[in-house]
Amino acid sequence: MATIWLRRSRTIAQSLKHKYGLTGILGLEGCNSFQNLHASSPSSTNHDRHLLVSTYKYSTTIVSDKRLKSTVALKHLDSTAFASDSDDEQALDFPGGMVSYTSEMQFISESQEKRIPCYRVLDDNGEIINGSDLELVSKEVAVKMYNDMVTLQMMDNIFYEAQRQGRISFYLTSMGEEAISIASAAALSTEDYILPQYREPGVLLWRGFTIQEFANQLFGNKADYGKGRQMPIHYGSNKLNYITISSPIATQLPQAVGVAYSLKMDKKDACVVTYTGDGGTSEGDFHAALNFAAVTDAPVVFICRNNGWAISTNVSEQFRSDGVVVKGQAYGVRSIRVDGNDALAVYSAIHSARKTAISEERPVLVEALTYRVGHHSTSDDSTKYRPVDEIEYWKSARNPVNRFRNWVESNGWWSDTEETELRSSLKKQLLQAIQAAEKTEKPPVSDLFSDVYDVTPSNLREQENQLRETINKYPQDYPSDVPV
Amino acid sequence: MATATTFITRGRRVVSSISRRRFSSSCQNAIQQQQQEKSQPGGGKSLNLYSAINQALHIALETDSRAYVFGEDVSFGGVFRCTTGLADRFGKSRVFNTPLCEQKARKFHIKFCFMQGIVGFGIGLAAMGNRAIAEIQFADYIFPAFDQIVNEAAKFRYRSGNQFNCGGLTIRAPYGAVGHGGHYHSQSPEAFFCHVPGIKVVIPRSPRQAKGLLLSCIRDPNPVVFFEPKWLYRLSVEEVPEDDYMLPLSEAEVIREGSDITLVGWGAQLSIMEQACIDAEKSPTLVALQEGISCELIDLKTLIPWDKETVEVSVKKTGRLLISHEAPVTGGFGAEIAASILDRCFLRLEAPVARVCGLDTPFPLVFEPFYMPTKNKILDAIKSTVNY
């Protein structure tokens, strides 16, 4: 009987998932954050929103009715699947360890009964929740964290505008995700290596990369460490142990394992932290990296910024699992889910993950739940595929910078005056940096040919000579701001 | 790889299929003699190609404590025995084990199922100043790692403005025909990698070459893809100096001098070409009635960045060029050589550049003898080029 019930209830649950997408799943799994989304957002006349809300309500009623039965069935399934007392006294001596036998045919459930909870420390108003596990943050660190989060916001606003004015070719903001990069960076040592994706300039900022250095990269001038070879936002700094960004998704993850293995072999008191998004977890590289990290016992912390959207692909279309955090266990990797918009929770989780990675020589996976408030990049208009009020809700009600500010202010470490001063000073610095970067000349043509190899081979020398002849002949064909 | 072990157990079949193709030992001897005449370190024991590779890896690990060897099944010695003894000598943290002797070293059961993982890991390791020597069990299985090689390893230095590099990375992979490998144990994918600025592609032709070139690749400050002719792993035997020596990259070598036609090749194909050269010398033609055709044979060794000058000098002397490789003719690296030499030697050429290569089909099992650029196909092309 139990199995029949199980099948029936799972079928219903599955069909609901397919029918109602994300809201169906959330209704089924009972996630709080989206209940808050609809409960706390101000009433709106937006048609889309009404649709969303009614779908949500509908799915909860249906699901809550069936949920009892499905839960009973699932409990039965889970408890037997992992039963410690087996039917058979014998065990299978299989490579990798003993496996007990059972005569009951039980499939492991595709999902857990409850979604993995999300660790947080600050409530929505920025007050520390009583009894929280947390790492204490000094005034100095907290104020710098807040300063850098504001700097990141201002940078994003002004550089984004510069792109809109056609002064730089491309830009990509960290809006809504400021807490993850800044707070994780704050919890690390500068000896730790960073293998970033592209939405973590906050780590560089924390480590002392200047606004001028950011601007130089965006403008691809001769002061850009990348010598103007890559699109804007592909920062890198040898000095700051921040390995240069590349556009392909998730390729940095297996590389991070190699870097971590090297740190371990050198017995360094350091680990590697590497970042990816929810979309990146669908790449083979993500899975290769987790598996490699586990088997090589590499001190690496994988941070997945699950921001709900991989360009236009919603997480409901990205995976059927309970997000990313559950994938760690399959590879034997310790994992935690964190509220990515709670800077203190991110700080505490990464502080602890780092300690684990180094002292226990093992990888850790951190899934930070957040939201991409900005468009994917300047080449994207996200209002075409997601409701405006969803963006607005995360931008205002769940804003990580505001939440952290409330906490910093409540400690008496920050004031409105300081806020105004900081913002006006940053604006001035940013505009000056843009002007200076714009005026700085581009890298010379010789930089086109250098660094392909350690020494320029003859075919490239030949091509350089040919190109120079062509430039002399047709100077009008080439940009005048690139020195020949 | 389930089929990997068949290459060990079917050793006899390899030899028989090769002799069917009239791969004569005299040809091997001819090449060996030629090599010994060159100004290379002398002496040493008689070794086959996999043992020479094994020696190079021992030296690489011995001379640099920051060198690592890893890949599928490398710890027990590899399916081709290239990594024999390394894990015992240098420890399982520097030579990563795989699950064939699981009771011994449970902690290091590393089964690399993700090729992108092997190369990605190697890039990270190399970026930290290590010598990362990665093995892909067959070149046919390198493609999942294509993204890591093309978009990551090759651009690591350039994209960071030389702030970072992964020059310590060497990717070894057995390539080419073996007599019974079918689609997935026979391919020659070198041309794909020759289209990627930032990496080097190197292919040795013999044990002595393999050892010296591999040591150069491992120590070269650029990422290198090193394809090993698996056909020759056991078959090719020559004296290999026991000491630590390196052969220069991006330098081609004239392994047989001649005056009527230049032949360019690399890896296992050179022995077939050598055989064709010998037969051509016995073939009187319109041009050389008495002496037969005098062929100059060049081993390119490094495919990118390649030594255009050596080929150019030779073709200016002979006035004719033939290129031969196992990979399909269309888009093969022979096309690049042909175009470059045509550009440099147009007025000196007395005949169109000939290419004798694999057919434009997937690598076939039963039809392998038909697919291959065999000695007689080359001989015919030599004759028709000289008689053009």
From TrEMBL, chain A:
Lineage: Eukaryota, Viridiplantae, Streptophyta, Embryophyta, Tracheophyta
Superkingdom in the source lineage: Eukaryota
Protein's name according to its UniProt entry: Uncharacterized protein
TrEMBL record, chain B:
Species annotation: Pistacia integerrima
Protein name: Uncharacterized protein
